[in-house]
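Prompt: Have a read of the protein record below and flag anything odd:
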Amino acid sequence: MDLLSSLKQTFAQKIPGGLSEQATSRLNKTLRHYVRQVRETGGTEQDILRETYASMAKWLKRNTTFIGSSTSDPDEPLANRPKVVKPSGDFFRMSPLTMASFDGMQDYTTGITMPSEDEESPLDKFERIKARRANPSEIQELETVPVTRVQRPVQQKDFLMKQDDVIKYREVEYNLFMNSKDRDWVNNTKENRYNFAVQLDSAARPQGTGAQATLTNRFRNITKIEFVKMILPVEGLDVIVQRDCLKTTVTPNPELSFVGPLALPYITVIMDEMTGNNYGTNEQIDKSLAVCQYDAVWKSDTTSSDKTVNRGHTLFFPKFMKAQRIYAPTPLASLQKMSFSIRNPENQILSTLPDAMPVTDIYFGSNTSVVSCYYDSSSEYIFIKSATWFPIWSFSVLDRLQFAGLESTTGNKDIVEWLQQESGHVVIGTAYNAGTPIPKIVDGVNSSGYANYIVIRNRFVDPQGGICTRSFFNAEIAPNLPVLLMKGSILNVSRQVQMTLRITVRELDSTTNLRPDNV
């Protein structure tokens, strides 16, 4: 017997009058539905019978008018039509049909057994027991009726999880903060604060290289890259030598002219790996990621009248504009490197001068070669000699320095460790060599506006104890001999560029498949 006949026979035994034509049609559709659904999930025909019976029983409870035969002639008098007996409400409160209800009838295709006509089904047995419980006189007889409980072990197919046809995603924003001081400024002399690269994945770093400006995260499925802002140091970008004609002695004075980023109408940011949404009358704008304008400036208060004092920082950002690149409909798979160059309106790097340079010698202030206001017999100040000359605006008073990679030929490790302390050192002034071949260290810069010495404070005892004396180094050298360095570099930390970008990536949204249970 096929599945439909088995179900119709079962309902005919439970419902007086049987199913109407509408109910039979509904049973046929329900059976076809569960045949398709259960077989797709790997179920058996026992599952089909169980699910079809449960769904049909719920439908009959809501549509009792479709129970009974509807084959009578509509023109026949009502009195002569066969009486349709509707099942009691107890039928619709019975438990769902179990496979034990089909244990008497064998299906010719799968071997599923169904109850025979002469055998009492579990549902009839349930009705009989319920009726006897209503009559106390039959309690003794009811207790003698054997009850068999059929328990089927839970199978894996009982937990059917429908998989979504479309994978759900969400867009997540990440803020990227990049500082030019984090690059390899000791070994890489081709980059400076206005021209540097950032690695977005530490695993992509070339072998044999030192510290680099690196982001440990690797971003995938990028949908948008947006430039947010940029912080620049307020520094002189060029040296202009003028004469102070008001003085009696007319000498060149490069301190009279200061041309910084605030003198520029705008600044463009170029990223070699991508272009933004900008178009202009020159190729530079077309290639730019952002076109930034001045917004704010801040600096530390000082009472010094020296024009070479640190002038703080300024903020540039794409005012009233969105500087971004959108990847749609297909996101960018990944981005491993970002190479930045900050340019002026003439498409030139703001400054090609290095902000990091190698150092060669260290002179104490008690050295007889020092002809400076910082000269004293107790060596309260130290003069750091750079391998190359630098312009007047490269190192200003109140700038903070960092040393790295220092090695001394004199074996004085104590002073090397102190110079390379993490907190760095503050610039007190600059000086230059005015004598040849014997050094003559003079304060300030030469007539061209360049110097080759940086002055910092020497090491002192902790002043919290009320003592204002020097803390001498181990095996300190003679006052007139410099500390020779084999290698090492110095960086002006106060002259670095900070940039902020926002990256939007597409990630799998796992929260849509999670139940809101507080387990």
Summary: Residues 3-158 form one domain. The radius of gyration is 45 Å.
